[in-house]
Write a structure and sequence with these properties.
binds adenosine-5'-diphosphate; binds alpha-D-glucopyranose; 10-stranded mixed beta sheet; 2 domains; Rossmann fold; 6-stranded parallel beta sheet; alpha/beta; 17 helices; about 475 residues
């Protein structure tokens, strides 16, 4: 099949979260299965043109009241032959930040991602590439599916199927309705089934309506987003398309996240010989300025400082955690200002107990995954989550709120049998979070044999992309059959 991926971030070129990891990896696995896969994203500031090739023709993209012009740069996804195209338009993309500066989104994001979405179609024409499937991701490229049913309806591209992956239903692309002309869509599409929600434009809603098939990134999340508790006001819209929605767990890049060869670590290790993990722990304690002591459990956490990730609950629980448990904490994150300040101040006051690094630092993220005993993810919701899979591969037992992908990828500790690969809390609040951390700390001190067995079991689990890539292949086939009327 010919498959065209369009996404707002792709690792290693630009990344704010797991979306980039997914779009950086899945196309390569599909290529291994023999498909012709290509990827397109914006040329943001910071992406070096040095290794890229510029296409001779400019690209005209109809947006707003006219047309915006850009250039196309071509490269390859690292360690692969998969072509990746970068759309250049400096007025839209040459600035600090991907979606916004600090906590506020850019005011022209509708135009920036209309350019990417419509530009995806313009590019496929420039290349003469008529895909069987456009695979689009989150609201930022959801409009591709709308254009296939409108502007492209009568062209060869209009026969292509579209698959929209929802990585996070919390982000929907809400805009004031007077911005509709930016999308160059007729007002007839501004209705309660397509683009209108609560008197505003909702780009994701339009994408959900117009895409041939929908996927999301774990089976549990596929069910959760059909409920008001996790639906962010679109649960009804998702339910209406339940027969076209598939939950496929993300994989991880097992070559990058491999403790036996990870170049970011002070020592490497594997499930048979964990001695290197002890070195990683000691080095991490040293780097964090914490007392170097193998006998104190060390809990790590790496993520965006965002409401989704449960930092508010951790902030509420932390006085009890520090007051009543013999434990050390290392945090790495960036995002909401209150969290950066709160956890930064806390580590200033308790330097022997907690270190909070503010920043985005992939190498340090690897060292935290390896050097910690436990990995904390008290997310309110988590469509998939990658860190709990990384941490299991590193023998670092996740402590998670049992939602979405966290529910699907972590097995709870059983004190009777010693089974499990992590610790789960089912009803998240400050007390229950304290309790589950206390349970893990208790097991660390009282059940060292079981903890060691859990580490080994976790490290032997497989989270590769091979299986998910085959599941996507099936969804593409289904989408093509539906689009061509074969069902
Ligand atoms: P989300 O996409 O919701 O942020 P995921 O768990 O899917 O959550 O993916 C997050 C990715 O971003 C992981 O690869 C994680 O290691 C990385 N990451 C998040 N915050 C940081 C940070 N401050 N420094 C380095 N890597 C980070
Ligand atoms: C989103 C979700 C995260 C998921 C990632 C990749 O950012 O928050 O849970 O792992 O997308 O699909």
């Amino acid at each position: 099949m010919k498959i065209f991926f369009s996404a707002s971030e792709v690792a290693p070129f630009a990344k704010t979260g797991g979306l980039a990891d997914v779009v950086g990896a899945l196309p390569k696995y599909l290529a291994h299965l023999g498909h012709d896969v290509r990827v397109v994203m914006p040329l943001y500031r910071g992406i070096s043109r040095a290794a890229l090739e510029r296409h001779p023709q400019p690209l005209g993209v109809p947006v707003g009241w006219g047309e915006k012009w850009g250039a196309v740069w071509e490269g390859r996804l690292p360690k692969s032959e998969v072509p990746i195209y970068f759309l250049e338009n400096d007025s839209l993309y040459d600035r600090e930040g991907i979606y916004g500066a600090k906590e506020s989104a850019f005011g022209d994001n509708l135009e920036r991602y209309a350019f990417l979405s419509r530009g995806t179609l313009q590019l496929s024409k420039l290349l003469g590439f008529v895909p069987d499937v456009f695979h689009v991701h989150d609201w930022m490229t959801a409009a591709v599916s709308i254009y296939l049913n409108t502007w492209e309806k009568e062209t060869p591209w209009g026969k292509a199927a579209s698959v929209l992956t929802i990585h996070n239903l919390a982000h929907q692309g809400w805009f004031p309705k007077d911005e509709l002309p930016t999308l160059q869509l007729d007002w007839s599409h501004y209705n309660f089934l397509e683009l209108e929600a609560y008197d505003k434009i909702n780009v994701l809603k339009g994408g959900i309506y117009h895409s041939t098939c929908l996927t999301t990134v774990s089976p549990s999340y596929a069910l959760e987003i059909q409920t008001p508790a996790f639906g962010f006001a679109l649960d009804g819209v998702v339910r209406a398309r339940a027969d076209s929605l598939f939950g496929i767990l993300n994989g991880i890049d097992e070559t990058i996240w491999d403790p036996s060869s990870d170049p970011n670590l002070p020592a490497n290790y594997n499930a048979e010989d964990l001695s290197g993990k002890a070195v990683c722990k000691a080095e991490l304690q040293r780097e964090a300025g914490l007392p170097v002591n193998p006998n104190i459990p060390l809990i790590g956490m790496v993520s965006r400082f965002d409401k989704q990730k449960g930092y508010d609950v951790l902030a509420e629980a932390i006085p009890r955690i520090l007051g009543e448990l013999d434990v050390q904490l290392v945090l790495l994150g960036t995002g909401e200002y209150w969290a950066e300040t709160f956890f930064g101040t806390l580590s200033h006051h308790h330097p022997e107990r907690i270190q909070a690094w503010v920043g985005f630092n992939p190498a340090l993220a690897h060292r935290i995954e390896a050097g910690s005993d436990f990995f904390l993810m008290p997310s309110h919701f988590e469509p998939c989550g990658l860190n709990q899979m990384y941490s299991q591969r590193y023998g670092t037992l996740p402590i998670v709120h049992a939602v979405g992908g966290l529910e699907d990828t972590v097995e709870n500790f059983d004190e009777e049998t010693g089974e499990g690969t992590g610790f789960k809390v089912y009803d998240l609040n400050a007390d229950s979070l304290f309790d589950v951390i206390g349970w893990a700390v208790w097991a660390f001190y009282q059940r060292p044999g079981q903890i060691l067995a859990m580490r080994r079991r976790a490290m032997q689990k497989h989270f590769s992309w091979d299986q998910p890539a085959r599941e996507y292949e099936k969804v593409y086939q289904k989408a093509v059959r539906r689009r061509t009327g074969l069902k």
